[in-house]
Design goal:
Helices cover 51% and strands 14% of the residues. With 216 residues, it is an alpha/beta fold. The strands form 2 sheets. The chain has a 5-stranded parallel beta sheet with strand order 2-1-3-6-7, sandwiched between helices. It is elongated, with a radius of gyration of 18 Å.
């Protein structure tokens, strides 16, 4: 990517705001425009014409909800929005997406996933944390995921493992359902990580959902 993606941050937690700012500053593709803790302060930037390409937005804020900012900014700019929050419930997910959010991540997302999701959003994708994906599918009326040309070499058993993970099952629970040992599940996971070029279970589920390799 040749042009820097200008980033705005709306996050009231000081440590989290500093972390996201750090992630942006460490990336060669991102440029931090503002980092605010309140809806009012973030709106002031939009109203002044200082519009980022994408805003990372928390939902629970001291002077309102991040959804309020998304509605205002989307009506007054071409900014894209990636929700980054601890809230994974159906109401929060659907309300944010209906307000104009382009993607929805939870705060336990890795640095790599955050940066990748920002880039994907700017390319027109809609990154969704696995925990929020079920709510999105229900919002879309159970629409099927678009097929992809490649399965990235995943075996049928590896796809099963990922599907159970996406449904919230643990390693042990997945092993019990499949009738195999936890060690076997771990071997499948290592293979999945290698094939999808990821480093965690959440990233694997995220990639599989985005690529249409699994459905939940």
């Amino acid at each position: 990517m040749t042009d820097l993606i200008r980033i705005g941050i709306l996050e009231d937690d000081t440590d989290m705001r500093a972390y996201i700012a750090y992630v942006a500053e460490q990336s060669d593709n991102l440029a931090l425009i503002f980092a605010e803790e309140s809806v009012q302060a973030a709106r002031a930037h939009i109203d002044a014409g200082l519009t980022p390409d994408l805003c990372l937005v928390d939902l629970q804020l001291p002077d309102g909800n991040g959804v309020d900012f998304i509605r205002h900014a989307s009506a007054n700019s071409d900014c894209k929005f990636l929700v980054l929050t601890v809230l994974g419930d159906r109401t929060s997910v659907i309300t944010a997406l209906e307000a104009g959010a382009n993607g929805y991540l939870l705060k336990d997302s890795s640095e790599r996933m955050i940066v990748k999701s920002i880039e994907k959003t700017m390319e027109g994708a809609n990154p969704i944390s696995p925990e929020a994906a079920t709510h999105l599918l229900s919002l879309l009326g159970g629409a099927e995921t678009k097929p992809v040309k490649s399965d990235h070499g995943l075996t049928a058993k590896e796809t099963e493992v990922l599907t159970y993970f996406a449904k919230g099952l643990s390693y042990k629970e997945t092993a019990n359902v499949l009738g195999v040992s936890a060690h076997t599940v771990n071997d499948h996971v290592k293979s999945i990580y290698s094939k999808l070029s990821v480093h965690s279970k959440s990233e694997a589920i995220f990639e599989a959902l985005q690529l249409g390799l699994i459905k939940i």
